[in-house]
Design brief:
By secondary structure, the chain is mostly helical. Helix content is 71%, strand content 2%. The strands form two sheets. The chain has a two-stranded parallel sheet. A two-stranded antiparallel sheet has the order 3-4.
Length: 744
């Protein structure tokens, strides 16, 4: 029977709800730096997308599925390099996903219950948060919902065989898109295939649809393994990312939800190597550590971390089983565990999140959704017809058990948990009305399971999050607000190194080094276990020219905290300020031996060796650095300089040419190569080097002067004079003398 026009109008306004909620969240957070700035994985996805647009670092060695950054890059090309456009698309598709879920729920439940499902999912603000970040999960969830809806339509009795095949074809395509974005979605595939058995269609049709679905999915699996079809991939190392995450979730110190590496400290996400390979600082730290342990290349890393995880599992089976049980409990816990931005801390910046996400006896909203969903799973009759709803919850549970628990990894399961929860709620009401006290006790047990803080996973990362906000203000050069939030971070944790070190930057930016010294000296009295505090004291003494105290504190740093590479770099710099280069060399040598992967320290070591004219030792260190990384153009510059000093011009040419290929257009390398050509009587090639510089920087007075000088050597006085005059006009101090010489 058709609905009355008033009801249709009412439904229209109801279906506006998810769009209104998302608009409210946007208006609520649009001017908050913490909600606008991409960090960690969001930052990696953003940076990778920009590099894809510019073809930077191509061909790519990839460690993660590149398809979400590829999607971002296409949007950036259309609308501009602004994450806001990605958020708008994701919010729109997230709201549209609520409508898709209504139709899915309407297949399994009554119309009224489907409306409740729609309303609950519309008000489910954690999804709104995830859609507002550069995470692939929200897009993946939309494609999943679209796929499930098409699967349901394909099995309807009134649908013709060809129509069913066409619908299942597109269902497989959308499912394939979902795991191109999130490869772990593939863990739901076995459950999805099994769910086909429970549909009431004819046996032959079931087999046909299962076959079509499976074939299309296999094609998308091929795309996932061979991304070269879509972008310039040189090496696909996604196995490394899987192996490091497997180890993070399964090691002797794993807690089931914190992806922490205990062997070495995590590197910053803006580390040059992390940017180059589009990975987080944690993954980079694990890659470099494994290379050190195996003395091998990238081929050894996946096997190394898998081997470490397998060793733990086989040698500690009971501990591993307890860890898996713990992960399962955490999976059904209502507290949102995040390893990106802390969603609870975000409530300070958003009224929408404050209203829709809270913990008081109940971990709302999941603390309500999970218990009733469990009721539907264990107490609702005719479960075979609803197995389709369990496919993605089971896939997400498998992901948690294999790796570790995290709120964003649960996103594909949440819509289906909500359908189950609505059905479970009405089932619970019926059982309670019938005074089934045993059932009531079970329901209470489910509430305890889903809301009790069994493993101390319910805590706010206030120090980390306050630091994140401070860093965003620092990036915008709002030093007052940055100072405020860094101090907040230190107040929460007076050993939190990132905030301590960042506050030191503020003191130096605003020229308040003495105030900074007093702050850190006071902080050190309260807690002498913080290496970062002592580091800042030594650094600020060196900045205020109190080099005696700086040296004393620098030595103290090495003695108390020998496992921090930064301490060796600082002490070496202090020795250089004291004009004691031999002592600096000794410190850099110790640091380089202890931290063979710290290329920046080794570069400092090389620079001192070069200043001491110890070119042989400098070249040995350079050779070691180049075996690890080619990211820094300074490596090639120092190598070329050393070869030139030793009059090994062929070697100088080879290394400088390699450096220019890796860093095209680098002025320092081109200048040095021009010198090599001049020394080997190849004046024309030297001129070409300087002309390359002038193409990028027409007013570069050094290259203007050198071009004029070289042209004069060749006897082309007219052209030489033209360049010399330009060099003079742009401020080269030697240009006037050259002009006089040319005119003679």
């Amino acid at each position: 029977m058709p609905l009355p026009s008033k009801k249709i109008l009412g439904l229209f306004f109801i279906f506006l709800l998810p769009f209104i909620i998302r608009a409210g969240y946007f208006l609520d957070t649009r001017d908050k730096p913490y909600t606008q700035e991409p960090i960690l994985l969001s930052y990696v996805n953003h940076q990778f997308a920009i590099d894809l647009m510019d073809n930077t670092h191509a061909p790519y060695t990839i460690f993660r599925s590149p398809f979400y950054p590829l999607f971002i890059s296409k949007i950036y090309k259309l609308f501009g390099t602004n994450p806001f456009y990605i958020k708008i698309i994701q919010w729109f598709l997230g709201a549209l996903g609520c409508v898709l879920l209504f139709f899915i729920a309407n297949h399994f439940l009554s119309f009224k219950k489907a409306l409740i499902v729609f309303t609950v999912y519309s008000l489910y603000v954690p999804s709104v948060y995830f859609e507002g970040e550069l995470f692939e999960h929200s897009l993946s969830v939309f494609f999943i919902l679209l796929s499930i809806l098409l699967i349901i339509f394909s099995f309807k009795k009134q649908t013709a065989v060809f129509g069913s095949c066409l619908l299942i074809f597109f269902a497989a395509v959308f499912y394939g898109l979902s795991f191109l974005l999130r490869p772990d979605i593939l863990l739901s595939l076995p459950f999805l295939i099994i769910s086909f058995i429970f549909f009431s269609a004819a046996k032959k049709l079931k087999i046909l649809l299962m076959s079509v679905f499976t074939v299309i999915v296999i094609i998308f699996v091929y795309f996932q393994v061979h991304p070269l079809l879509f972008m310039p991939v040189s090496e696909n190392r996604t196995a490394i990312n899987a192996s490091v995450n497997f180890y993070l979730g399964n090691n002797p110190k794993a807690d089931g939800f914190n992806p922490m590496l205990h062997e070495v400290r995590e590197m910053p996400s803006d580390h040059p190597e992390a940017i180059k390979y589009h990975i987080t600082g944690l993954t980079l730290a694990m890659v470099l550590y494994a290379k050190t342990q195996t003395s091998g290349g990238l081929d050894t890393i996946a096997a190394y971390w898998l081997g470490r995880a397998k060793s733990f599992i086989l040698n500690h089976p009971l501990k591993y089983l307890f860890l898996e049980l713990k992960k399962a409990v955490l999976f059904f816990n209502g507290f949102f565990i995040t390893n990106q931005k802390d969603i609870y801390y975000l409530r300070n910046f958003s009224a929408v999140l404050s209203l829709g996400l809270w913990n008081f006896l109940i971990c709302f909203p999941l603390g309500l959704i999970f218990p009733f969903a469990l009721i539907a799973i264990f107490f609702q009759k005719k479960q075979d017809k609803k197995f389709l709803l369990l496919c993605f919850p089971l896939g997400c549970l498998a992901n948690t058990l294999i790796f570790f628990q995290g709120a964003r990894f649960n996103q594909p399961a949440i819509p289906f948990f909500i359908i189950l929860a609505v059905e479970g709620f009405f089932t619970a009401i019926n059982h309670i009305r019938q005074k089934k006290w045993g059932f009531t006790l079970i329901l209470l047990g489910f509430f305890i399971l889903c809301n009790f803080n069994f493993f101390n996973s319910h805590y706010l990362r206030n120090a980390q999050e306050s630091f994140n906000v401070g860093r965003m203000y620092l990036k915008k050069e709002n030093f007052t607000q940055a100072d405020r939030f860094f101090r907040k971070s230190i107040k929460y944790d007076n050993q939190f190194a990132p905030a301590i070190l960042s506050l030191n930057i503020i003191f130096q930016k605003v020229k308040k080094q003495n105030e900074g010294l007093n702050f850190y000296l006071d902080l050190y009295k309260k807690n002498k276990k913080s290496w970062a505090t002592l580091y800042c004291i030594a650094d600020l003494y060196s900045k205020t020219d109190n080099l005696t105290k700086a040296l004393m504190r620098g030595k103290q740093l090495i003695e108390q905290f020998p496992d921090n590479s930064e301490n060796y770099m600082l002490l070496g710099n202090i020795y250089l300020l004291r004009k004691e280069p031999l002592e600096a060399v000794s410190i850099y040598q110790k640091g380089s031996t202890k931290f063979p992967d710290n290329s920046l320290m080794q570069l400092s070591y090389v620079s001192v060796l070069v200043s001491l004219q110890n070119y042989g030792d400098a070249l040995k260190v350079i050779e070691h650095i180049l075996s690890k990384t080619t990211y820094y153009p300074e490596i090639f510059y120092y190598a070329g300089y050393c070869f030139i000093a030793e009059k090994q011009y062929e070697d100088a040419y080879a290394i400088l040419n390699a450096g220019i290929q890796r860093h095209p257009g680098n002025f320092s390398l081109l200048n040095l190569l021009a010198y090599v050509f001049e020394q080997t009587k190849q004046i024309d090639k030297a001129i070409i080097c300087h002309e390359q510089i002038l193409k990028s920087s027409p007013e570069n007075n050094v290259s203007l002067y050198e071009t004029a000088r070289l042209l004069n050597l060749k006897g082309n006085r007219k052209k030489a004079l033209s360049y010399a005059v330009k060099a003079y006009k742009t401020g080269n101090p030697n240009a006037l003398e050259l002009i006089r010489k040319i005119k003679k």
